Amino acid sequence: MSRFQALIYDRFMRQSEEACLRAWRAELLSPLTGDVLEIGAGTGVNLEHYGTNVTRLVLTEPDRHMRRRLVDRVEVGGGGVEVLGAPAHTLPFPDGSFDALVSTLVLCSVADPAAVLAETRRVLRPGGRLVFIEHVAAEEGSSRHRWQRRLEPVWKLLADGCHVTRRTDLAIARAGLDIETLERESVRKALPIVRPSIRGVARRA
Ligand SMILES: C[S@@+](CC[C@H](N)C(=O)[O-])C[C@H]1O[C@@H](n2cnc3c(N)ncnc32)[C@H](O)[C@@H]1O
Question: Around Cβ 49, how many Cβ atoms within 10 Å?
């Protein structure tokens, strides 16, 4: 991301955050306990939702402009959170290190979602959970899906490699994670091509 994109990210997202994303983040993240890893933490919008039952919190963010804003937010919150630059397909942790891994609006942007989900499965303990909020492809054959396909090449250039036609629920299942809860809902106040979304929890058996 450019310095400018990192600067405007929170402002660009504000309306959708207020309309729905903030509530979805709270609902999914506040119950988490134990050791938690968040990938692609961006500017740190999820930080306010982690509760006191999280014993270790590690945030990764490979983009240096986003990471600078993330570090600022962690410091304002009093520290106690580890911040790393590692990309999500090569996480510097032994197998089975975490009780939960959080991915919000990240699997659209990574170059290789299958590699990231394999790495997710590896670092989760047996019984550990992937918690996700992701925007995804619209229903196959719908006019929104046709627009997503038309606009994706340009959108990827404008939005740092963000894909709008990914079937992330299928990718999660293919990675060997058992989907426990899955909600499909439109991201309100977002651009139409990034409105279809999934959120939920998947468990490593
Ligand atoms: C749309 S932002 C989402 C930020 C934040 N998670 C949120 O919910 O608002 C996508 C983030 O994914 C990060 N990202 C892109 N490729 C990544 C990768 N391979 N590994 C980890 N994070 C990545 C970007 O740097 C960016 O901060």
Answer: 19
Q: Element (H or E) spanning 16, and its range?
A: helix 3-16
Q: How many domains does the structure of the chain reveal? A: 1
Whether ligand 1 lies within 6 angstroms of the CB of 109 is answered as yes
Give the tens place of pLDDT for each residue, 75-119.
987 878 999 999 999 999 999 999 999 999 999 999 999 999 999
Query: CA–CA separation, 48 vs 123, rounded Å?
Result: 24
- Report the nearest atom of ligand 1 relative to the CA of 1: 25
Report the CATH number at residue 110.
3.40.50.150
Range of the domain at 81: 3-204
Give SS3 for 85: coil
Ligand 1 pocket test, candidate residues 9, 61, 73, 106, most atoms within 8 A of CB: 106
Q: Residues, the chain, total?
A: 205
